[in-house]
Amino acid sequence: MRLELGKIFIKNIEFGGQTKVENGTLYVNKDELLQEIGGDSRLTKIELDIAKPGEETRIMPVKDVIEPRVKVEGPGGIFPGVLSKVDVVGSGKTNVLKGAAVVTTGKIVGFQEGIIDMSGPGADYTPFSKTNNLVIVCTPIENLQQHEHEHAVRMVGLKAAAYLGEAGKNVKPDEVKVYETLPFVEGLKMYPELPRVAYVYMLQTQGLLHDTYVYGVDAKRIVPTLMYPTEMMDGAILSGNCVSACDKNPTYNHVNNPVIEDLYERHGVDFNFVGVIITNENVTLMDKERSSNWTAKLAEYLNLDAVIISEEGFGNPDTDLMMNCKKITAKGIKTVLITDEYAGRDGASQSLADADKAADAVVTGGNANEVIELPAMKKVIGYLEPADIIAGGFDGSLRPDGSIVAELQVITGATSEIGFNKLSATQY
Amino acid sequence: MVKEIERVGIPVVHICTVVPISLTVGANRIVPAIAIPHPLGNPVKTMEEEKQLRREIVLKSLKALQTEVHGQTVFDK
After folding, report:
1. Where are the alpha helices (DSSP H) in A205-250?
2. Number of Cβ pairs closer than 8 Å across A and B?
3. DSSP string of A121-157?
4. Sheet containing A100-106: which strands, arranged edge to edge?
5. CA distances from A363 to A3, A259, A427 (A)
6. For residue A426, what pLDDT is reported?
7. Which of A93, A117, A122, A407 could lock onto A392 through a cystine, CB 3.0 to 4.6 A?
C-alpha cells in the first residue's frame, strides 16, 4: 500500500469571505463552516474562534484536536466508517493542511479534559500551541447524557476538519512524502537481511468516555488485528476520549503517529518495517488476556524480530502494556515500550501500576504528576472553572486572578506515549 | 493497604479485577472481580443476577480468608 502525503504548509488562519488556502493562509468562511457542522439537535449553540501561536490565549476544557486532511486520489475518504464510507484507506494521494488544527471545547463533558495555552510556560508543554487553531465552542442542551455530548462534539470536530481539508484538495502541496508498505511476502523478500520490526499500537478503550474508533468500530469490540501504517494517515483511527488529557491520543496524533513516521524513516535502512498490530485496553481481565495473547500470536505469525509497543493512558492499561511485553518477549521477540509516568509530585513513587522483568527497554513521555503553574491569559476560549475538577487539578487549582496551578496531566498531549511531544527522561 | 494490614498480622483477601497488578503489589489471597468500572456487579445483568454474583464473590472471599496459603494464591476456580 502506497500513500503520497502532500503537505500544504499553513502559517496563518483568518476568517474570510471564502474558505481557501492562499500563500500559506487558511481563510475560513464562518457561515459556511457553521452550516456544515450545525444541525445536531443535541447542541444549542456552536461558536467559532481562532487561536494562533504566541497569543495570550487559553483553550479549555479541550476535548479533541483534529488535523484537516483531504483525499485527493485513491479509494475512500477521510475518517472512514465515520464521515466517509468504510473503504480501506491509506493509498493514493492525501493532502494535509500542515500547521492548522481544529480544537473542540465548550462545557465540560466528563471530568478529565485538557488545557492548551498558546503562549507562556503552558505552551511549551503542548504541541498544539504551535498550530493555527480553529476553535469550536459547543454548548449542549440541558441534561444531555455525557456520552451523547461527547458524540455530538466529536462529530462537529471531525466534520469541521473534513470541511477545512477540502480547501486543500486542489492546492499544490509544498512538500510530498511517499510512504509504502508491501504485502507480506513481497515485504519479506525486499530486505531479507534486515531485522523485521512491527509496531504494537495500544488504543484506549476503557469505556465511559475512554474510547477509540477504528473504521467506525468501537475498539473495545475488536480483537487485535493488522493494519497498513498508511491507513492511520487517512483517519482510520480516531479519538473518542474525554479523559486525562496529557497521555490520550487526540485524533491529530493518530494521523501523525511519530512511531510510524520514524519506523518508515529507517525502513529498508536499519530494519524492515512490517506493519502495525492494533490492540485495545479493556476493563476485564479476560479481555486483557485475550488481546495480549493475540498481539503475541500475530507478532509470531509475522516472523518478527522486534516490536515497539506504545501505551495510551495509565493505571490498569499498564497491565496491558506489561502483558503485551511479557508475552511477545516470551516468543523470542525483542520489545521496546513507550509509556509515561505517574511517579508522584516528587517523582519518587513507582511510575507504573504494573511491572515485569521483560520490560527492560522503556521510553518515558514524562511524569504527569509534576506540578506546573500557568499564568492567567488575556483571552479564554471555553471555561476556566473546570480547572479544579479535571484530572490533574485539585481544589484551588484555579486562582482568583485566572492563573492555574495543577499537575502536568491537565495539558493536552503533554506526556504523549507515542512521542508526539518533547518531554522524556534519560538515565545516566 | 493490603500489605500494611497483613503486616500487623491480619489476613487480607484482595478482591481485584486486574489480578496481575495485585500480584505485583504483593497480595497473598486474591479473588478476581468482574471489571474495573464495576468490580462487584455487572450492569448488563438483572438485579437478582447481580445479587447472586456479589454473593458468590463474597462467599469465595470468606473461604479464601479461611484457607491456609503458602505464597501468593489466586482463587479463580
Report:
1. 229-233
2. 34
3. HHHHH-GGGSSEEEEEEEEEPTT--HHHHHHHHHHHH
4. A43-51, A132-140, A100-106, A64-66
5. 29, 12, 10
6. 76
7. A407
3-class secondary structure, A270: coil
Question: What is the predicted pLDDT for the residue at A243?
Answer: 81
Whats the size of chain B, residue-wise? 77
- The pTM score is 0.95
C-alpha cell at A117: 495555552
Chain A nearest-CA residue for B35: A284
The gap between the terminal CA atoms of chain B, to the nearest Å, is 25
Query: What is the model's pLDDT at position B33?
Result: 96
Smallest Cα distance from A200 to chain B, Å:
21
CA A2 from chain center: how many Å?
A: 22
Tell the residue number behind the cell numbers 508498505, with chain if given.
A181
The closest CB to that of A323, out of B20, B32, B35, belongs to B20
C-alpha cell at A71: 483525499
Q: Which residues of A touch B21 (CB under 8 A)?
A: 316, 318-319, 353-354
Q: For residues B70-76, give the mean pLDDT.
A: 95
Task: Please report the pLDDT score of residue B41 as a whole number.
Answer: 92
Q: Which residues of A touch B19 (CB under 8 A)?
A: 285
Contact A316 B21 (CB under 8 A): yes
Sign, CA dihedral A361-A295-A177-A85, equals negative
Distance of CA A405 to the CA centre of its chain: 25
Contact yes or no for A322/A359 (Cβ under 8 A): yes
ipTM of the complex: 0.85
Preceding omega of A61 cis (within 30 degrees of 0): yes
Q: Is A138 a catalytic residue?
A: no
Residue A428 has a pLDDT of: 62
Are β-strands A43-51 and B13-16 bridged in parallel, bridged antiparallel, or unpaired?
unpaired
Residue (of A118, A135, A116) closest to A28 by Cα position: A135
The C-alpha cell 522503556 sits at A362
- The answer, yes or no, to whether residue B77 has pLDDT greater than 90, is no
Question: How confident is the model at residue A57, as a pLDDT?
Answer: 98
Gap between the Cα atoms of A218 and A223, Å rounded: 11
Which residues of chain A fall below pLDDT 50? none
